[in-house]
Structures are given as C-alpha cells and as structure tokens.
Amino acid sequence: MTRRFFVALMLPLFSLSGLQGQSTEDLQSTIRQRTGKQVEWQKDVEAGDQIREAIRVLLRRTLTADSAVQVALLNNRELQATFEEIGIAQADLIEAGLLKNPIFAGDARFPNRAPSGTDIEMAIAQEFFDVLVIPLRKKVAISQLMKTKLQVGDAVLKLAAAVKTAFYELQADQQLLGR
Fold first, then answer.
1. What's the total number of domains in the chain?
2. Separation CA 135–CA 88 (nearest Å)
3. Is residue 106 in a domain?
4. What is the pLDDT of residues 74-96, one digit of tens each?
C-alpha cells in the first residue's frame, strides 16, 4: 500500500523531467519560416556577445530592409523582455506539476507524574485534493505557455513589419529629397 502511494505521489514529479529542457526552438523555427530571419533569446552573456558580433557584421554591409529587420530582431531589448515571459511561463508549468509543501508537526511531552516516559508525537499532512488537481493545473500552465509563445511570435512579426515600413518610408523620403 505505501509503495503504491509513494509511486502515485512521485509520478507527477518524474513526468516533469522533460519540461525542464524545453526550449524555444519551435517558436524560433516558426519565426524563421514566416520572416526568413533569425531571432535569438539572449539567456546569458556569451549569447549576448555572439549576437553583438552578428550585428556588427550586418552593419558593416549596406543596410537593406532585410538586414535592418535582422538587426532589430537581434538587438531589441523589449523583444528580449518578451522572451523572458516564456521563461516565466515555463517555470509556472514546472511548478504546476509539483505538490504543495506538506505540513510537518511534532510534539514532545515530559510528564511530571507517572508514567514518567517522554511522549513524542510526529505528524505529516498533505492536501489530498492537491494531488487530484495537478493534471488540471498542468493543462492550464501548458495553455499559458502556448499563449505566451504566440504573443512573442506576434511581437516579432509586428517588429519586423514596423522596421520594414520605417525603412521603406525613409527610403521614399530620401528619394523625394533627392529630386
């Protein structure tokens, strides 16, 4: 009985092991298909250095609408902040599959008359309902993660469109001034 109970409690925890390595590759692939551009989530200093070098290479060449979009996608701080929302949603998904902390209690009684033995009581309590709602919480968290990824994709597409529009407007203004 206790072994089955232990397995039933631990199974949700083991099912989360694949979620921790979950990345944004699917989102990056979708963005690459729709824009033809690469977008990166700057998770650490090394990635930031690589991205800055890629931007330097792009800016050494003649600026085109496509290269302007690529620079904007790589260098936009607001977009990077939007990517951080994915990390938060991933953490929420992991948390949704975890049990809440159990409650531990203990008492020690030292009687002053017979019987004179020390009486120690220990107790542990866990909300049973919490175990039952883990699958529902995980479904909600998965939906939230998908929603966040779609919002990030939307932000990327809007930024790409805004940069192209601004680039072509600048080009048109320069041509009008050149007349």
1. 1
2. 19
3. no
4. 989 999 899 899 999 999 999 99
